[in-house]
Design a protein that fits this description.
single chain, Jelly Rolls, about 30% strand, globular, about 230 residues, 6 helices, alpha+beta
Length: about 230
């Protein structure tokens, strides 16, 4: 099945909503069948690494690397992760950078996001004619995962808009994993619950976090995330 946004979307209405606060959530972004296929691929066919920080430095390790650690090494690892987090720095979640060896449906989705057909729609709703490409990764949050408060500005990558394509059905807000927005001074604004087959778009200047998933979170929070960029 070829990747493409649903043909039933009202891009004028999406643009109007985005321009109110430089953020929007688009429901039913794919056909239901296509969204289910992507979700199944993320859940069952995608190999995730673990993304985290140590003393503020971003690291990614494989499942095998973490499994081979001694109890003392794991204790030190998580002690450092939580030390960073206590200072408002860092993250702990699953990551799969989409690449040519990824499941085909993920490669196709990334290729579509980089197609002129998709990029032109994103330029239209954002008013940013300098958008040229999209980066994409599979993202998995499970119990214990989190992403601390930050913005996504990274000038060397030319990030303009962040996006979250969500593929987890029937998410309960008590399970954490909310996309929490903040004012620049850290005051909470509002939180968006993951919603199956939706695309969240927001300007990279928005301060945000993914809230902690407690031990009783029963399922994976799965998405394709990334940025629409100028370079």
């Amino acid at each position: 099945m070829k990747s493409a946004f649903s043909t039933s979307l009202d891009w004028d209405a999406i643009k109007n909503e985005y321009q109110k606060d430089l953020r929007v959530r688009v429901d039913n972004i794919w056909t239901a069948e296509h969204a289910n296929m992507i979700g199944q691929s993320l859940a069952k066919k995608t190999q995730f690494g673990h993304a985290y920080t140590q003393d503020g430095r971003a690291i990614e390790s494989s499942e095998q690397t973490l499994a081979s650690m001694s109890l003392a090494e794991r204790k030190q690892l998580f002690g450092n992760i939580y030390k960073d987090a206590s200072k408002g720095v860092g993250f702990w979640y699953g990551r799969h950078m989409v690449n040519p060896s990824s499941p085909k449906i993920l490669v196709d989705a990334k290729d579509y996001l980089n197609s002129e057909a998709a990029l032109e729609k994103i330029r239209y709703i954002s008013g940013r004619s300098d958008i040229k490409l999209a980066s994409a990764q599979g993202t998995r949050y499970t119990a214990g995962n989190f992403l601390t408060r930050h913005n996504d500005i990274l000038e060397r990558e030319g990030r303009i808009l962040a996006f979250v394509l969500s593929f987890t059905p029937k998410w309960h807000p008590d399970w954490g994993g909310l996309l929490q927005f903040y004012q620049n001074d850290g005051t909470p604004r509002d939180a968006w619950t993951p919603k199956f087959n939706s695309m969240t778009l927001f300007d990279v200047r928005h301060v945000h976090a993914v809230t902690y998933l407690p031990p009783f979170s029963p399922i994976q929070r799965l998405s394709i995330t990334g940025w629409f960029r100028s370079c």
